[in-house]
Design goal:
Blueprint (H helix, E strand, L loop, with lengths): L5 H23 L26 H14 L6 E5 L5 H10 L2 H5 L7 H10 L27 H9 L6 E7 L6 H6 L2 H5 L6 E8 L9 H4 L2 H10 L3 E6 L3 H9 L5 E6 L25 H12 L7 E2 L3 E2 L2
Parallel strand pairs: 1-2, 2-3, 3-5, 4-5
Antiparallel strand pairs: 6-7
Helix pairs in contact: 1-2, 1-3, 1-5, 2-3, 2-11
Bound molecules: thiamine diphosphate.
Thiamine diphosphate binds next to loops.
Length: 310
């Protein structure tokens, strides 16, 4: 048993559900964002462009970290895979960060419609993290820089805590691999604390990641070789995540093991981008999309008058 309160764990689960729903709504819907009537072909975007597979894991990490470091203004979350933008945008909307820079992104029904409709839409939001995204340092798209950026942000700021999420595909890049050496070079009492979190969903675009083909022991030994202590978080249960964060370790390296595309109609590599190809003109796929959206029971989490009610 953990010392983490049930209320807190329930809140984290609900936040993940709300953000997962908003990811699907952004990726697919041009209207009927709260499912107030049966979904029709015209409610689906005519051109689907974005990435679903990584979103659930990002929402899990974001919700757990935000909750764990609540009230600590020195905490930052650095996200490597910029293609996970639906999740980043959902969390920025949820926290009111988006509204601070975009007055249309109000945390109500209108704002929700604005964010979902304009995701990956002409003259709207791009499909990846971009300079319009609050807090963006490097435009999303090219993987590999997150860990180096986090270490850069830590320089001369011992008060900072930087949790940085790295994809297991991203960990194959030369940039990320060599950035693991930055711990030996930069970890000191003069700089902030960098906490890597590997998003170990096992897949890249259409194939398994190299680390998914290696044994757990080999991955752990590699991480230890760079001076970190590997800590496995197996699955999306917030209790496991909070317990892991509560462990007192000097240089933790969390491995968040999730199923790629969890919650969606297909898993693993098939979920990387858009898991339903033609819900705008195929009734079976439209039904599957509606069922998928309904599975989150978003109406329990969002009130048309009050906004989020978690
Ligand atoms: C430097 C670089 N090489 C290749 C790509 C193409 N690419 C986009 S997403 C992706 C897979 C990323 O896998 P991972 O980091 O594990 O993220 P996730 O599986 O969570 O989507 C790749 C290879 C890229 N964006 N940047």
């Amino acid at each position: 048993m953990s010392g983490v309160g049930i209320d807190k764990l329930e809140y984290i689960k609900k936040r993940i559900r709300a953000c997962d729903y908003m990811c699907v709504a952004q990726l697919f819907l041009s209207d009927d964002f709260l499912l107030e009537r049966p979904l029709g072909f015209d409610d689906v975007k005519p051109r689907l462009l974005g990435h679903w597979g990584t979103c659930h894991g990002i929402n899990v990490a974001y919700a757990n970290l935000k909750s764990f470091y609540e009230g600590n203004s020195n905490f930052s979350f650095v996200l490597g895979p910029g293609h996970g933008f639906p999740a980043l945008q959902a969390n920025l909307f949820f926290d009111g960060e988006l509204e601070r820079v975009d007055p249309n992104a109000t945390r109500d029904e209108r704002g929700l419609a604005y964010v979902c409709h304009n995701f990956s839409w002409p003259d709207g939001f791009p499909s990846h993290a971009s300079p319009y995204t609050p807090g963006t340092i490097v435009e999303g798209g090219e993987l590999g820089y997150a860990l180096a950026n986090a270490y850069g942000l830590s320089l001369g700021h011992p008060e900072k805590i930087l949790a940085v999420m790295i994809g297991d595909g991203e960990l194959e890049t030369a940039t990320t691999l060599d950035s693991l050496n930055l711990r030996s070079l930069l970890a000191s009492s003069k700089n902030g604390k960098v906490i890597p979190i590997l998003h170990f969903n096992g897949y890249k675009i259409s194939a398994p990641s190299i680390y998914a083909r290696r044994s757990e022991r080999e991955l752990n030994e590699m991480i230890r070789g760079f001076g970190y202590q590997p800590i496995l978080i197996d699955g999306d249960d917030p209790e496991a995540f909070q317990n892991a964060l509560n462990q007192k370790v000097d240089f933790p390296f969390y491995i968040l093991k999730t199923e790629k595309g969890a919650g969606g109609p297909n898993k693993h590599h098939e979920s990387h981008q858009i898991p339903l190809k033609s819900p705008m003109n195929n009734s079976n796929e439209l039904n599957a999309l509606e069922e998928w959206l309904k599975s989150y029971n978003f109406n329990e989490l969002f009130d048309t008058e009050k906004g989020f009610v978690l």
